Amino acid sequence: LRSFLDRFIYIEDQKLFRMLWESIEGSAPRIRKIRDTKLQHDQILKLVKHLCKKAAELDYSTASAILKHPFLLAAQLGIDEVVEEIMESFPYAIRFHDEENRNIFQLAVLNRQENVFNLIYQLGSSYTLVISSRDTDGNNILHLAGLLAPQDRLLLVANPVSRMQREIQWFKEVEKLVPPTYKLDMNFEGKTPVMVFKEAHGDLVK
């Protein structure tokens, strides 16, 4: 990896930027697994930092095209260091959405990625913009907290009762951050966040 960093440290070509980001995206799950291998972890983050800096020097459209997918993917996978680095290098990234119009904090809520979600406290004036966003199904961020966690996240807790308690706790934590009116909001199916939660978690308590 060290030779990889040295070889590409001065890359300027935009196509190679995209190739490098694809390489990072492909290795993203491994980034989480090597947190205890400090040297490798630091080298990967050094590469990310360099690419973010270089991408931010490009015009807006090109920088967005390069950074958007890695940014959203990192949020989904819970790689908060990458999310934070891109936000710092390219603040407009906070406005990126996926094909279902979900921003990084909605993705973090949906995938139960606490470390990424906690970055919301650093937003300042962008907080309202992020919280108020709705996805293509009309769900606000509390609706998404009401959906069942992905299977791999649920299985982190062995006991079914504890899983349910964890899901309730997650819902309540998000609930604390949104205006009271969000609790009564209906999505395009006419469901409030509590209705979504009860429906999604019905089998979890059986």
From TrEMBL:
Transmembrane segments: none annotated. One of its GO terms (cellular component) is membrane. Gene3D superfamilies: Ankyrin repeat-containing domain. This is Ankyrin repeat-containing protein. It comes from Davidia involucrata.
